[in-house]
Amino acid sequence: MQLCPFTLCNKHFKDGVFSEVFHVNEADANLALLPEGLDIATATMLSDMVLTGFHGVELADVQFGDDVCVIGIGPVGLMAVAAASIRGASNLYAVGSRKKCIEVAKAYGATDIINYREGDIVEQIMEKTKGKGVDRVVIAGGNEDTMIQAITMLKPGGRIGNVNHLGSGDYIKIPRLEWGCGMGHKTISGGLMPGGRRRMEKLASLVITGRVDPSLMLTYKFNGFDYIEEALMLMKNKPADLIKPVVIL
Question: Can you list the domains of the chain with their CATH numbers?
Fold first, then answer.
């Protein structure tokens, strides 16, 4: 059996993960036995992309029949698309432009692709929903101004789940009228993904039973630590066919 670690809280983060031996904090709570038949390369997705994307859908509280927009379809956004589909989203709009990501988003259940290079994404959503907007928005990409778009496309009473790291600027902009002047019951939730052994076991079960297939995101696979720098440079340079590289020891 393989062991897959996940650190519960960001205050426990530490350097040194790219090594043959790594100390895991609170191992009893954070190490999960992977079930037989689960590919180790696929399992690496569980402790980051799957956890984060699924949490975005939890924060947005996607319900059966909801119209959902996922902004950003990198690895996290793709897992948000998959999770929203599992939760019963009806019209599922995925915002992105890269051909490979679009292909995988459709495989995970996206019904429509919103390409931000082809026009304002809010206008495209409103056109597709006949001016009604969507019930739920998951923000998995963009910048501090993406919140404006999310609030504008959201129906009154809707909910936004943000798992995008907003790493610049001093403020997040909330448009007053689009937010219903503070009385539109448009809820914004954001947070760091929860982890731990039990959650990892549940997500692994979804993979084993065929409910979700993270392996579709593994576009580059390397064997040996000598390839770590090459894999990291792929993430930096982002070739057109890249979603996620994995290095296996």
Answer: 62-190 (3.40.50.720)
